[in-house]
Every structure is written in structure tokens, then in C-alpha cells.
Amino acid sequence: MSKVWLITGSSRGLGHSLAEAVLAHGDQLVATARKLEQLQDLVEKYGEQVRAVALDVTNTEQAHAAIAGAVKAFGRLDVVVNNAGYANVTTIEDASDEEWHAQMEANLWGVINVTRAALPVLRKQRSGHFLQVSSIGGRTTSAGLGPYQTAKWAVEGFSEVLSREVKHLGIKVTLIEPGSFRTDWGGASMTFIEANEDYERVLEPMIAYRKDISGKEPGDPNKAAQALITLVNETNPPLRLPLGSDAFKIARLVDQAKLAETERWEHLITSTDYDDIEHEPLAHGMGLPQSSQETTR
């Protein structure tokens, strides 16, 4: 059976590739962007199969209107893709208050707004799937991406809590963690903001890398779109899906390094319990996984 999708940030990059793939697959779509004219190509090509909606994800009223419009147009909502977002490069110190707030609004609050607007619909249906487009930068960090990666780490925590709260309602949640894809995310969409010269040593390698790799990224957004269509048809999808061979390698290295560091400091970590504690204070009450299978639902 065909699915009804809503994708934020449908006008460019991964969002546009996914929108095209969803429609070509025969599904129905509510495509959103800040400016309606940016979605005209989809409307002209796919007609009644798609609804174009102007949506600023930082506006809660618009988020609720977009969700309501999807249900009115197609009768239900199966997949919500929180994809809209952007990154600028500067240091934690040099980013202005306005820059911090703007990136947190777009990259975190946009996800929260659209997710919360969609939850009553999916809860009533007892079905649905949130695809939360995070980043491999939601697992690791890079100098110069403080505001962006702060938001992405928050999206990861928000979405993991969400998955625990809605699993019993038949609602699925998957964090999508892309590596480097050949879109304009690190090109035309990215601004390099001047920083204090004291930070040049840590910023210059990252800036040089971003400029050098732009247009030569290993990831194909069209293949990513096909992977996501496959994902939403899985019975037991993962909570996290790194996307791209580079993302896979980074995720593995980061997870191994974190485990090694934790084990190296086990003596100090475990020295803080009361002496009369006889049981292991395991995480069952906190909802942490008790088996490897539970980590993939």
C-alpha cells in the first residue's frame, strides 16, 4: 500500500532527492519549504500526488497547519521526515547570540515543532514513522560546528526519548545520520563566519576540508533517498541509521573510542557507590536496553 509522507526542506539537497524518489515510487507527499515557488517543479511533474506547503519549521502554527493539511488532503500520515536545517561555520565564542538562536531554532526547535504537531495524528492512527535527519555530527564533533552540532546532539536525545514514549503506540522513530553527501549543505548553504585568530589553528583544517570536498562528496543523495524508502518498509527499523560509508566508519570509530575510554576509567567511575551496595544498579528503571536486540527495537 502506498504511504503518505511529509518532508520538511523539500526544495533542495537530500530533501528534494527524497521527495522525487517518494513520488516516483507512487507514494503521496506533502512537500514543504519556506518558499512555495521552490516546490513548483514537483507540483508540475506530479500533480495531485503532491501538495506543496509553505512551512517555516520554527513557526508552530505553520507546523500544525501543515500536518492538518496532509490529513485533509490524503486522509492519513505515515512518514514524517524532519529534514530542514543548515550549518554555518564559526567558533562557540565567536558565534553571535543571533547565530546561536537561529541555528538552534532551525535545527532543533523545528524538529520539536513538527514532531509535536504530528504526534496526535500518529497516536490516533496507532501507526507512523518519524525520520529525524540528524547528522553523523550528532555522534561526533568538529571544531567550528558548535551551534549546529549542539542542536543535532539535542535532536538525538529528543528522538531517543520519543522512541521510548511512542513504541507501544505503533509509532517508529529513526535517527538518520548522514555523512558527506553531494548536496549544497557544505557549499552554497554554508557560511563561514570570521573568527578570532586564536582559533585559526583548529578551524583552518576543517574549513579547508569543507571547501576541498564540496562537489566531490562520496554520498549520492539519490541513493540515500532509495535507502530511506527501503527503511520505512522495514518491520523493525533501527533507532539510528548512519548514512554513507564514511558515516559508518565514523560511527564505529566513535563508539569504540567511547567504550574504550569508559573502560579505561572504570576504576574511578565505579568508586562512587556506597560501600554497602550489593546489587548492580542496572538501568532497567531508566529504560536502557537490557539486550542487544532491544537496541534495534
Automatic annotation (TrEMBL):
The keyword Protease does not apply. InterPro entries: KR_dom, NAD(P)-bd_dom_sf, SDR_fam, SDR_oxidoreductase. Pfam families: adh_short. SMART domains: PKS_KR. Residues 3-179 form the Ketoreductase domain. Keywords: Oxidoreductase. NCBIfam families: PRK06180.1, PRK08263.1. Belongs to the short-chain dehydrogenases/reductases (SDR) family. PANTHER family: SHORT CHAIN DEHYDROGENASE (PTHR43976), SHORT-CHAIN DEHYDROGENASE_REDUCTASE FAMILY PROTEIN (PTHR43976:SF16). This is Short-chain dehydrogenase/reductase. It comes from Dictyobacter alpinus.
